[in-house]
Amino acid sequence: MPNEQIRQAALQHQMQLTKPPGALGRLEEIAVQLAALQHTLHPCVDQVQITIFAADHGVATENISAFPQSVTTEMIKNFAAGGAAINVLARTLGAQLEIINLGTLHSTDTLSNIKHYHLGAGTANFVHTAAMSEDQLAAALNTGRASVEQAQANNRQLLIAGEMGIGNTTSATALACLLLNAPPAQLAGAGSGLDSKGISHKINVIERALTLHRCHTHSPLEALRRVGGFEIAALTGAYIRGAQLGLPLLIDGFISTVAALTAERICLGSRNWFIYAHQSAESGHAHVLKALQATPLFDLAMRLGEGSGAAVAVNLLRMACRLHNEMATFSAAHVSTKTQ
Ligand SMILES: O=C(O)c1ccc[n+]([C@@H]2O[C@H](COP(=O)([O-])O)[C@@H](O)[C@H]2O)c1
Ligand SMILES: Cc1cc2nc[nH]c2cc1C
């Protein structure tokens, strides 16, 4: 559990800093939350791990994305070459970046700076059958779990687990519909760029899938197996393990938040370790955040994924920590707050 005594002490410390109490708004909340999560009065997020899980989705053959499935593989090559948004952000932050391919249609095996776990050439098309077998689900969850254990062994202070996979907003939407008992029309959005006709078709595809799976889905794990993706399961495993190990987890956009909700449903209390970076432009994100009682830090109308919104939030967290740790107290600065 987050340390309640430290949380109270950190709150007290904020009250003594040379500013009107509360004047640094959510920066104060962040510092206090990180203090409680890290069990220290001096929170710090200098050492950041960013892990991106990538995979393909069988449901992409239903024409539910603005981009062809081959883009997943092409983007993994781009990650390997250092040219994607998350590469730039990770370099800016001095963060460790790890890319894990869990199973794509086309092989990326020749790329030496990518980790490969070939669970299949993407998931099965969940309009017709379960997306994953029991073994594939277990392997994907384990991959996420192992990546977090390695991050902890490397003394990382903050984890960002992100994703890349053409079609994964359809998978994440179907999963959120099952977990929240919500209709697809409420949660489905444009993903990487569908127009309104494309969104209507996407809703129809998800409705057909839910008709097949709903009555067989009696647990969040089974929902994940039936309509999830390899990378969404890896994210879920990473979030559960991060919470178990007591590592603060910075959550990115729509797909990441659906995985965070899945983690919370599988392992109650996981969400105590989540910090929500941003409100994605993907329309279903607001609903999923609400279900987690989450208020993200900012809304920049981003909808990229690959952990990018979370990466943008890191410097806010760092500034919150430094303000908490380095500002003078009223007594140290000899500032009297007594009115005449
Ligand atoms: O993170 C988000 O909120 C987000 C919203 C829309 C799209 N994406 C990214 O776009 C891809 C999925 O879009 P789509 O339309 O193919 O389902 C996938 O690689 C995600 O990382 C991500
Ligand atoms: C080009 C592109 C880059 C991405 N990064 C994460 N999701 C993505 C989707 C597309 C289409």
UniProtKB/TrEMBL annotation:
Active site, per annotation: 306 (proton acceptor)
Statement: the UniProt record of this protein carries the keyword Membrane: no
Keywords: Cobalamin biosynthesis, Glycosyltransferase, Transferase
Gene Ontology biological-process annotations: cobalamin biosynthetic process
GO molecular function annotations of the record: nicotinate-nucleotide-dimethylbenzimidazole phosphoribosyltransferase activity
Tagged with keyword Cell division: no
Top-level division of the source organism's lineage: Bacteria
Catalytic activity field: 5,6-dimethylbenzimidazole + nicotinate beta-D-ribonucleotide = alpha-ribazole 5'-phosphate + nicotinate + H(+)
Pathway note: Nucleoside biosynthesis; alpha-ribazole biosynthesis; alpha-ribazole from 5,6-dimethylbenzimidazole: step 1/2
InterPro entries: Nict_dMeBzImd_PRibTrfase, Nict_dMeBzImd_PRibTrfase_bact, Nict_dMeBzImd_PRibTrfase_N, Nict_dMeBzImd_PRibTrfase_sf
EC number from the UniProt entry: 2.4.2.21
Functional note: Catalyzes the synthesis of alpha-ribazole-5'-phosphate from nicotinate mononucleotide (NAMN) and 5,6-dimethylbenzimidazole (DMB).
NCBIfam families: cobT_DBIPRT, PRK00105.1
Family: Belongs to the CobT family.
Protein name: Nicotinate-nucleotide--dimethylbenzimidazole phosphoribosyltransferase
Protein source organism: Nitrosomonas communis
